[in-house]
Specification:
Elements lengths: L1 H17 L11 H22 L6 H6 L5 H4 L6 H21 L8 H18 L1 H10 L5 H27 L8 H17 L1 H5 L4 H16 L18
Helix pairs in contact: 1-2, 2-5, 5-8, 6-8, 6-9, 6-11, 7-9, 8-9, 9-11
């Protein structure tokens, strides 16, 4: 049963990877493209994490794959293409997990607690990959980099919608919604960018509570009801 679930998850991941239409391929079979690109992403992610983008060669990647250099160039045209697939796979996975978070339709405050806690936990699980994204995405060509940043922007939009609801309901102050949402995403990313220092002060639950206290201190309207101080734990659909 577990094996079937893993196979289904890998196929779903491959389908998402194959949807990246900006990377050309000479292979006409979409299932074949999805399978090979999934293998490429898995291998390249591991190598990029261990050695960095510049410390990893195409031959290093091919040696760890089940096909040769000539076959690789049927699915991608450069190492930058592979980095793009790795970055896009990470952001697609993060976006999918975030979209499974069940918010509270009746409470923008509770929705923000749940949504922020959920994103922090997602980032914490993927902290090495998030660091990789920050470190290496600048080496992508401008068009591919823009595609990755557009996916990142979806995370900001997730928080933006929550803040908009709170402002409209009078629960949150009339703030710059996009800027507030961007700030929340970046605060969560500190778990990946400064893991050792953050964890020298507190654990994950403590970090989430501290940051939520800070966020609400600047966001709640003066006449808003006090929020529940219980740690927010994300629920899944």
């Amino acid at each position: 049963m577990a094996g079937k679930a893993a196979t289904a998850a890998r196929k779903a991941r491959g389908a998402r990877i194959s949807e990246v239409s900006s990377i050309p391929t000479t292979i006409k079979n979409p299932e074949r493209v999805a399978y090979r690109r999934t293998e490429l992403v898995e291998v390249a992610t591991k190598l990029f994490l261990e050695r960095g983008f510049h410390g990893t060669s195409i031959r290093d990647i091919v040696r760890a794959c089940s096909f040769n250099v000539a076959s690789l160039y049927m699915y991608v045209s450069s190492k930058e293409d592979i980095l793009f697939l790795v970055a896009q796979d990470l952001m697609n996975d993060i976006s999918l997990k975030l979209s499974e978070t069940i918010l509270d339709p009746d409470s923008p405050v509770r929705s923000l607690e749940i949504g922020f806690a959920s994103y922090c936990r997602i980032v914490n699980r993927h902290r090495r990959q998030v660091r990789l994204l920050y470190r290496e995405v600048g080496f992508l060509p401008a068009d591919l980099r823009s595609n990755v940043l557009a996916t990142v922007s979806g995370v900001v939009t997730f928080f933006e919608k929550i803040v908009e609801r709170g402002v409209a309901a009078g629960v949150f102050r009339d703030v710059s919604v996009r800027l507030a949402a961007l700030d929340m995403m970046m605060v969560a990313h500190m778990l990946a960018l400064h893991t050792r220092e953050v964890m020298s002060f507190t654990d994950l639950d403590g970090y989430i509570k501290f940051q939520l206290d800070s966020i609400f201190a600047g966001l709640l309207a003066a006449d808003a009801k006090p929020r529940n101080e219980a740690p927010a734990r994300a629920r899944r659909k």
